[in-house]
Structures are given as structure tokens and as C-alpha cells.
Amino acid sequence: MKNNPEANEILAKLFGSVSRARIIELLVSQAGKAFYQREIMYETGLSLHPTQRELENLIDLKIIKKRETKDRVYYEVDPHSPLLKPLCEIFESARKKQ
Q: Are 91 and 29 in contact (CB under 8 A)?
């Protein structure tokens, strides 16, 4: 998505920000895989502050969950979120339009 301006615009309008849309797309497209913050930054092309802000927003919305270990904090989509299936459908539809 970070290379598709049209998809960025549509999803940003839907989710309120490009940052949020990029993070959701990454985590939903790889459901079951946990990422630490720097991986999310690298994969989405976002800087630190927007990444931190949107991760906290998504935790508050119960779309993702946070897991802490001794030296890292991991984020992954919450498989029990009632929003997971609709989000998967939205991003699949956006990918098809690319």
C-alpha cells in the first residue's frame, strides 16, 4: 500500500489517516504474526511518533493486542476482534483494485 497513492487516499479517508491504514493493512495481511515497533515502522515507512500514536489507538479500539517480553513489545492483530473479518475484506478489496 505504501507505493499505491490511490489506495492510500481511499483507505486514509476510510480510516482517518494514512498511518492507521498502513499499520492495519500490515497487521491484517499477516494475521497471526507479531511485529515489534521498529519492524512496523520499517514495513510501513512511518516515523516513530505516528507509529506509536496509531498503535495505541488500535489497542484502544481492540483491533490489535500488545504483548511484552523482557526486551521487546510485540503487536499483532487480535484474532478475537469482531472487526477482524470486515477489515480483512476491506483490505482484500483494496488490493484487488490495485
A: yes
